[in-house]
Amino acid sequence: MSSEFRVKAISRLHAEFSVPGDKSMSHRAAILGGLSNGSCTVRNFLPSEDCVNTLNAMKALGANYEVLEALEGYGPVDLVIHGQSGKLSAPAAPIDCGNSGTGMRLLAGLLAGQPFTTELFGDASLSGRPMGRITVPLGQMGAKIETKGEKPGCAPLLIHGTRLNPIDYDMPVASAQVKSAVLLAGLFAEGTTTVTQPAETRDHTERMLTSFRVSTKREDNTISIYGGQVPEATDFTVPGDIS
To answer: What is the pLDDT of residue 161?
Structure first.
């Protein structure tokens, strides 16, 4: 026995709705806001578990935040993030990245250049994902990163931050996360760090660095960043992600 449903089309629809903020850009807003030289208002931040874990990771590193407004239910929020001018503090405990590979890889790049040791861990799924694509270039910059997972090369990550050297890195595999980790580490390197990707990847990080007044340069698939820059405190609205 089958059921038949008939849907009658309407001629026109008038409505207003709010599209939740982009997940990838919410991660980056939490990080760049926390690194900035003042307080940033971030609107339409996506309060998904992954993004909140990154936000709380930055809080554990000294970048506090307040929620200004939250929509009912599972909707975007407006925040004020208090940047630390690039000078973060050692966390009191290991940092939980949950299920977020984006959060862990971006934070690893950031933490590689800090003058303290940090442990990043995640759930069982995240602990099974290889991290060699970031530990190799960050190691070339001078960071010492131990992979402590049951599987070789997997999280938890014990990151011994240090003063970093700039590198010219040719990525063997195109990856926006790896590119972003190296660029964030490049902020703390003494010189110019370049990343060349074998194919174009999402450019959320480069666009947002520009929004936070960080100077970068792009030629074809090579991106350069100049060390020693501090992101400028900027109010930022996370674009909606209709996907």
So the answer is: 97
142 vs 113: CA distance, rounded Å: 9
The dihedral built from the CA positions of residue 21, 27, 28 and 31, taken in this order, carries a sign that is positive
Residue 204 clears pLDDT 70, i.e. is over it: yes
Q: Where are the domains of the chain?
A: 23-229
* Cα–Cα distance for residue pair 45/172, rounded to 1 Å: 32
Whether the pLDDT of residue 73 is over 80: the answer is: no
Q: Which fold has domain 23-229?
A: UDP-n-acetylglucosamine1-carboxyvinyl-transferase; Chain (3.65.10)
Query: Measured between alpha carbons, how far is residue 39 from residues 4, 47, 78, 106, 180 in Å?
Result: 56, 19, 13, 21, 23
On average, the pLDDT of the chain sits at: 95
pLDDT tens readout for residues 226-236: 999 999 999 99
Which residues in 67-94 are b (16+ Cβ under 10 Å) and which e?
Answer: eeeeeeeeebbbbebbbbebebeebeee
